[in-house]
Amino acid sequence: MKLTSGWIGGSLSLGMSIAVRTWMKTLRFQISYYDSSYDPANASYTTPGIYIFWHEYIPFMFYLRGHNDVAMLLSQHRDAETLARATRFVGFGTIRGSTSRGGITALRKMFRQGKTMNLTMTPDGPRGPRRELAAGCVYLASRLQLPIIPLGLGYDRPWRMRRAWDQFAVPRPGSRARAIMGPGIWIPAKADREQLETHRRQVETVLNRLTVEAEQWAETGQAVGNPVVITRTPRALTWMRGSAEPAIAKLDDASRRGVAT
């Protein structure tokens, strides 16, 4: 019997959702913006975007930004099935695929949803290398003409899963959690492969810089910019409707499309 199928998988996903929310709500969240109009939770929000942050900080946004018309790109691997269901419990749409498995189909789904929804991904997932940005988000930003919104995230001296490829961060209960939402980064429409690689390196540099700044802020308590307290609007756990079917096509034309494998 597969633990990710049927009522067993649903129970595991619901349990994960409850556990993460219970743990994360003890943290003290603050955020500093380059432009607050890019945050879909703000009244000043105007423009859909592609939100990126490193894989090790998934629970941070999982907790804070459900029910904000955001679709999350997740791996097709069966181990991600529980996470996919859990994200839908807390109010995210899901698209299954990655830049190494089912990528093109997933990108096409994201194209369709990008007309009406925000998109989010962890550009070093699902297998790393840690904090090295794959080109998928840059390719999407170019073809959809949506800005990339980099999110630097950090906890105060979190526990780390050192054997995990991403050194997954587990925050200490009651500790500081800090976010820096960077400026919107626009990629030229129909950028060629060389241009995509140039922008990929630039976006990676920005995301790493913001992440280090957020981590230092969380550890030292020394504010960056003009921080505000960030909260999650109370919302019951409800199942987010919409297909989470797995993408099936291989990314066999990645090199022609300029997407890194």
Explained architecture:
- This protein has 261 residues and is α/β, with parallel strands linked by helices.
- The chain is 33% helix and 16% strand.
- The strands form two sheets. It has an eight-stranded mixed β-sheet, sandwiched between helices. A two-stranded antiparallel sheet has the order 7-8.
Write the layout of secondary structure elements.
Blueprint: H1 6-24, E1 28-33, E2 50-52, H2 58-64, E3 70-74, H3 81-89, E4 93-96, H4 103-113, E5 118-121, H5 136-144, E6 148-155, E7 159-160, E8 169-170, E9 176-181, H6 193-220, E10 228-229, H7 254-257
Parallel strand pairs: 1-9, 2-5, 2-6, 3-4, 3-5
Antiparallel strand pairs: 1-10, 6-9, 7-8
Helix pairs in contact: 1-3, 5-6
Distance between the termini: 33 Å
**Strand order, largest beta sheet:** 4-3-5-2-6-9-1-10
Shape: globular
Query: Level of helix content?
Result: 25-40%
Class by SSE composition: alpha/beta
Most strands sheet: 8 strands, mixed
